[in-house]
């Protein structure tokens, strides 16, 4: 199950702007910068502050937003998949091979 | 909570310089290649100039490290720019790369013109005195304050006729005077002595210390530096190549000077319209300009020989 995987940030260069964060993944080739804002930025910051399981990530975001974890899980998992694809995040542990492998 | 898809990003020049500098430093570090960031935001951090938006990233790479680092950059989508085959007064000192999605160039320098001492020793000297700084959240290395001042001065003095920015040197002199007040100027002069820049960075040094000594231990390199400093084009370089070539090679050099290849012409002047007529017109313009430059180039030679 995806929620059992551990999610951790990979090395990146970053510039904080008031409304967004600019990130350049350092562990993949391509030099493709990405910008994150709003809830995407919130997910990224939660991951980069502390690696943890997907369950912990969803629970933390749910608590911060006053929502039930089940309401957020699908969106968070999908966004983490996007972060894996661009080289900002790594998933390890059970179920990790299905994404970004 | 519905996070959007991650969109493509259009970089500003300022952000591109910061994250690009962090990227190339990190990439070099992973490869075990030592690099120093020159000019750019690092110079503003050292208070040698006011913050301004740079159009490129200047990286000094340890001797022997450029080819590997260029290959790593190319693997990440950077493309080497055209390099002219015409003769140079100063040995080519950098490879320039661009990235189709980035608004800046990446210059990987093999050495810094104007530091006339042994290149290995120059790099070690710069590296041993480096200053660590954080750029886009990544630790980067800058040359120390005194060598950074010299690097900016040499950049301004390398081809002042071409750059046409005399204000840069004057502003640098003012900034350096404030950073090296009174007797502290001797530290800058000593740094210049060690790097072989006593004669090449003279306008900066004498502005701070009128008694700054000459060096004189690199006469041929200094002659070429002075010749180059007086040029805006390539006339002197062609004349020097012609003069120093064996007789049997002179005709070939003269032909290349007068009728450069189409690749060379279009690489040097990407604004030439397509077609043979446009190319011929551009060649005529270039030849006329070169001929007009010869008297001035001859004077420049005479000055450099004095």
Written description of the protein model:
The complex is a heterodimer of chains A (about 100) and B (about 300). Chain A has a single domain, classed as Alpha-Beta Complex (Outer Surface Protein A, domain 3), CATH 3.90.930. In chain A, a hairpin with an 8-residue loop joins strand 3 and strand 4. Chain A has about 100 residues and is of the alpha+beta class. Chain A has helices at about 40-50, 55-65, 70-85, and strands spanning about 5-10, 10-15, 20-25, 35, 50-55, 90. Helix content of chain A is about 40%, strand content about 25%. The radius of gyration of chain A is 13 Å and the shape is globular. By secondary structure, chain B is α+β, with helices and mostly antiparallel strands. Helices cover about 55% and strands about 10% of the residues of chain B. In chain B, a hairpin with a 2-residue loop joins strand 6 (about 130-135) and strand 7. The longest helix of chain B has 30 residues, at about 275-305. The mean pLDDT of chain B is about 90. The interface of A and B includes residues 15, 29, 32, 36 and 38 of A.
Compact overview of the structure:
Chain A has 101 residues and is α+β, with helices and mostly antiparallel strands. Chain A is 42% helix and 25% strand. By secondary structure, chain B is an alpha+beta fold.
